[in-house]
Write a structure and sequence with these properties.
alpha/beta, UDP-N-acetylmuramoyl-L-alanine:D-glutamate ligase, 7 helices, 6 strands, 15% strand
Length: 164
């Protein structure tokens, strides 16, 4: 499974890896376009703390040295952090009534990939991802948000630039 980023790179495609543990570590070495651990997975990968936005930013920058071009660390209600060679940003989750967070991370990745396929820059694609994750978390059971609901939440998504 971890050779897929190498195969994708050789084919000119961009691999997005959402994994944990050894698969995440080996996947980083394969130099994928993007990795998306959650804050617990990123902490386990690096041995670094990720409880605050500042800690997660340092951890994301460290993960960049392991091979990927982009690192997104999902942080639940705090949002998701993006780090790449140009800087680091926190995309803030819109306020929702949390019903069920199960599947929100997968919805984030789905929205992110949707944005990338629409030729959005990674930061703007991540805004879609955060809106999709919030939509999923606001619904009961394993429902996912409708495009209309995601678009309404997208209007409330914003990001901040994180210092050096």
């Amino acid at each position: 499974m971890v050779i897929f980023p190498l195969v994708f790179n050789q084919a000119g495609a961009r691999a997005v890896l959402d994994a944990e543990g050894e698969t995440l570590r080996l996947g980083c070495e394969a130099k994928p376009f993007l990795v998306k651990p959650n804050h617990v997975e990123a902490a386990k990968l690096t041995g670094m703390p990720t409880e605050t936005v500042e800690e997660a930013a340092r951890t994301a920058r460290h993960i960049l040295t392991m091979g990927p071009e982009q690192v997104i660390i999902s942080m639940g209600e705090l949002g998701a952090m993006l780090a790449n060679r140009d800087g680091a940003w926190l995309v803030h989750t819109p306020k929702i009534q949390m019903r069920n967070p199960i599947g929100a991370g997968d919805s984030l990745v789905g929205g992110l990939v949707y944005g990338l396929v629409q030729s959005l820059e990674v930061l703007n694609a991540l805004e879609w991802g955060v809106a999709c994750g919030a939509a999923a978390a606001s619904l009961s059971g394993t429902e996912i948000g409708s495009k209309k609901w995601v678009e309404e939440l997208l209007e409330k998504v914003h990001f901040s630039i994180l210092a050096g």
